Fold this protein.
Amino acid sequence: MPLVLGLLIIAPAVAQAPWAVQPGATEVSFVARRFGMPTASGRFQQFDGVVALDFERPERSRIRIRIDTGSLQTGTPLVDAFIKGESMLDAARHPVASFVSDAVSRTGDGSLAIRGQLTIRAITRPVTATAVADGDPGAAQRGGPLAFHANAAFSRSAFNIGADVNVVDDQVEIAIKGRLSR
């Protein structure tokens, strides 16, 4: 299911040293809805990522995230097993979901649009995420940590997830909230 993502080599053109996603200070979650009401949600316990931001020229920025699909927890073991199962994430055969950026553009002070490739179940499709700095990007540029949140959505059917499942809508929302550090 979500996202989220496979480690990419940071291009040498990126001026800033990369940040690492801090697993203890970051959360990767998803929510699926039915008629606008949340019907399934959970968090991934194991993930990693690298973010290289060029604050002056965001188009030189690169982001990659990788999620262990088997680390999903919804709070209900039966639901966990179903979502990790063959008809949904198929975590046994596809243990990693990944996101690799293609293009990053500024959309406002402290906010970015991140276009990239999301891979789930060995299927790769384009996805656009929005990211917002919750802290001071200037302090982060000088080497401090950067608090942020990011959101994206994808179509289950585009990734062959749960074709026979009709208790949730086709769109699944992914959210990442946390802190980056060097």
